[in-house]
Amino acid sequence: MMLTDYRYLCLIYIGLTLLYLVSDYFKMRRFWRAIEAVMSRNETIDNIAALPRGYSTQQKLFVRALKKQVNNYHRFVATSIDKDKDKQNFAMYWAHEIKTPVIASKMLLADHKEVLPEKVRQQLDYQLNEVDRLTMQSLYFARLDSFEADYIITEVNLARIIKDVVKRQATLFISKKIKLTMTVPDVWVRSDSKWLSYVCDQIISNAIKYTPPSGEVTCSIEQRDNHVSLSISDNGPGIASEDQQRVFDKGYTGSLGRSSHKATGMGLYLAKQMALKLGHELSLKSELGKGTSIQIIFETKPQYFMPE
């Protein structure tokens, strides 16, 4: 009798155990299917409300721990954004403030140019222009993430922009005795004049930097059926083939930049990023020992051309 009771109790125990395991299995399956459903809807982990509640104690602990990690992640992102904004605001503040002493120095140099040797005056003028250019570079870099809030697309005279940029760079052309050849008819394209001017300034400045003394820089505008192309070329040392795919990468200076210790790897990166945001295509062609040509393509329509 006792043996029968023992067997009966064992069967009850086994039955209850199986019932618990089956119940736990279905709870687990229901929970993970809910997780899979969230993933299949492409819900991000940021959407805590989309997470299932959890049916067992372990599942509830798992969901609670996951929500805690998500909240910690949100706080980290918010803090990082605030820090980035602080850095951006400081960079913009610095760039604006440094303009005052630069302008004052230029005025002082202009007022006392007769007492300075021509070569010294040109060198000082060049260095002040470099400070101004690099200051603007830092300012535009700080504004890059908020670009969409600071541009207006209108019809702009591409030839006028090129001529204005060349005029600002006149001291550099003169000091290196670089010949400038321009074929720039009055062509109108859709862009933002301020940002496009900066893109052209970076490219021309780069061309001057790597053109040897008494070399040549060429600017030309060509009209096509559905686009306008601006080419800025130099007869400098050219760019090695292994560097050409990376010259627009942030911080990449290439073999020429590393040998001269003057390149920052930011100018062409910014030019490329701004051109893309404006909807323009920026490309490069170069042959080692023969020079480099950078081309900007503007998608356009016939009515944007100024009649000759």
UniProtKB/TrEMBL annotation:
It is a multi-pass membrane protein. GO terms for biological process: cellular response to phosphate starvation. It comes from the Bacteria. The keyword Protease does not apply. Keywords: ATP-binding, Cell membrane, Kinase, Membrane, Nucleotide-binding, Phosphoprotein, Transferase, Transmembrane, Transmembrane helix, Two-component regulatory system. The chain crosses the membrane at residues 6-23. Its EC number is 2.7.13.3. Residues 93-302 form the Histidine kinase domain. GO terms for cellular component: plasma membrane. It is found in: Cell membrane. This is histidine kinase. It comes from Brochothrix campestris FSL F6-1037.
